[in-house]
Amino acid sequence: MIFLFVSFSLYCIMTLGDIMKKLDKKAIILYIVTFLVVVLGDQLSKILVSSSMILGQSVTIIDNFFYYTYSHNKGAAWGMFPGHVEFFILIALIALAAMAYYFYKTKDYEVLTRFGIVLTFSGAVGNIIDRISLGYVRDFIDFIILGYDFPVFNIADMAIVIGVGLIIVEIIFEEYIYGNKKVGNHE
After folding, report:
1. Strand 58-62 to strand 137-145: parallel, antiparallel, or no bridges (unpaired)?
2. Which residues are catalytic?
3. pTM, whole model, 2 decimals?
4. What percentage of the chain carries pLDDT values higher than 70?
């Protein structure tokens, strides 16, 4: 596992130089600040919750709608396939490498896709920190929506979902946003 993490880190460092050459300074600052806000906000919120609540404790924020419920996710999304932490770490590392590669391949005009990748990457890093250091992911945001008790999640999960949403929006509305001549005129 250590070999994989070191290999991945080296890949990211080598790729980062090429990626940064393609970006202007404002974009670099935006992406770095976004990454730091998501990862630090995620980790600080998890530390706050895990140090002030006991596992399974729930605090009502808005009755029958929004709660802080401290839980440990030892599986994938929504706790599926618990007990395979090493596998999830490996998959997350592969996903992070794929995101770095895909970011590198994006065009200058694919702003939503780039920002979506940064959010998704940041969220994945926030959760992988938990998996590597604790063996599980700390979750605490709990909603009941129209009577459905949605699975408990965290800030990193929100960043992943928002990031993927931005990528999907750009893909769906690509022709509308860039018109029929998008490929040749914006590279």
Report:
1. unpaired
2. 139, 157
3. 0.82
4. 78
